[in-house]
Design a protein that fits this description.
This protein is of the alpha/beta class and 456 residues long. It is built from 20 helices and 18 strands. The strands form six sheets. It has a five-stranded parallel sheet with strand order 2-1-3-4-5, with helices on both faces. The two termini are 24 Å apart. The structure holds adenosine-5'-triphosphate and magnesium ion (MG).
Amino acid sequence: MRPKVLVAEDDQVQRDVIADILERAEYDATRVSCAEEALSVLRAEDVDLLVTDMRMPGMDGLELLREAKRLRPGVEVVVMTAHASIETAVAAMKEGAADYLTKPFDKEELLVVVAKATERARLLRENRELRELVTHGASLGNIVGQSPAMQRVFELTQKAVSVNSTVLIQGESGTGKELIARHIHFEGPRKDKPFVVVNCAAIPDTLVESELFGHEKGSFTGAETSRKGKFEIAHGGTVFLDEIGDMHTNSQAKLLRVLQDGIVERVGSSQPRKVDVRVIAATNRNLGGLVANGEFREDLFFRLDVLPIRIPPLRERIQDLPILVAHFRAKISARLDRSAPRIGADVLEAMRRYRWPGNVRELENTLEQLFIMCDSDALGAGDLPEKLLEFTPQSGQFTLPLGGIVLEDLEQDLIRQALERSGGRIKEAAELLGLTYKTLQYRLKKHDIDRRELVQ
Ligand SMILES: Nc1ncnc2c1ncn2[C@@H]1O[C@H](COP(=O)(O)OP(=O)(O)OP(=O)(O)O)[C@@H](O)[C@H]1O
Ligand SMILES: [Mg+2]
């Protein structure tokens, strides 16, 4: 979508020069000759940026600025002043103008100021939209998703918060199982009590009993002191049994007992201890399937599967991609303490087509890598890692005409088009072509293309 710019300038020649430059640089420019006309446009449609002269007959630029902001709080304003009236520019900045231009200014100055202001408008709009999504139920705490599947997950999660029932969370790796488990614990009545994570895949079978239920001093070689097990430690809180599908069948039997009657016995002691623990279990394996194969106890499965929550893989709810990307942009830029680069439509499209075997975790990690590696303010297809590159929209989009083509001519033609579109800026043209700045420079030389001659 081309950013919309409203140009308010009473001098027709100047107005046309400015609007023409903007239109050639891919802005959608609307021309008006006074503040009143500008306001009627603003009333009718949303505009990203208002570029206004300060001195116009009737209402002046400063008043227009105030009115515009009142009508459209999201609009950015750039004011144009004569050299002599720099104080009015300062006054405009105080009233919330994004920037000012001192007449006379050249094309480059205009384009730089307009690009910055429209980018700011776009970022603010994105933030506003993100906030709206959040208030409209596209997130539950820090869990984000707007697909119907995730809405269902949110519903079940919210139900789980207020009851004590055992929850079984199933989903592929990186789909947010632990995130949900933590939400259930930390939003619920047990939030001030411990949340204890047990990674069932990581405990050797011989140690499971002592890990979960504790042991008395001297109960086995190496047991030099008595120790509480995870269930005793979690008393009053929650035990999160992660990777439950990887637990050995022997250990499964021992777990069954505590789930049935809430009683644990330390290894080497026959004293039963009552514990008040809520259990949340998670697995990336298909527990029902494991039961069918005899690898998981059916009775334990039924004990766990009281409140089942299934999180679908990201590729099956790819409509969550934009909001997840927006969420991680904010999260990662806070973590790295720098502003996140813009993400091009081709990048998003490649992400949409990729399969994401590592799901949301892989998306977050990929974005963080991209942000760290990117040294410009925009991410283009050229920045993508190999795994995503093959999914960029460019590949396979052109069909070779019957008579064939001269590849060199096509390349020249595309480079010229990209330069036209970028208003002669090599960096942006390179982005459009998925090339690096250097490569494009090299090709310009090779084809003897003079960018200045193109854009004037
Ligand atoms: N819907 C979501 N919204 C925001 N962040 C998410 C979402 N889903 C996952 N994440 C993030 O992705 C990462 C992985 O999530 P988590 O550890 O909960 O996954 P998991 O399902 O437990 O994975 P594994 O099976 O590999 O243990 C975390 O950084 C988490 O914050
Ligand atoms: Mg996990």
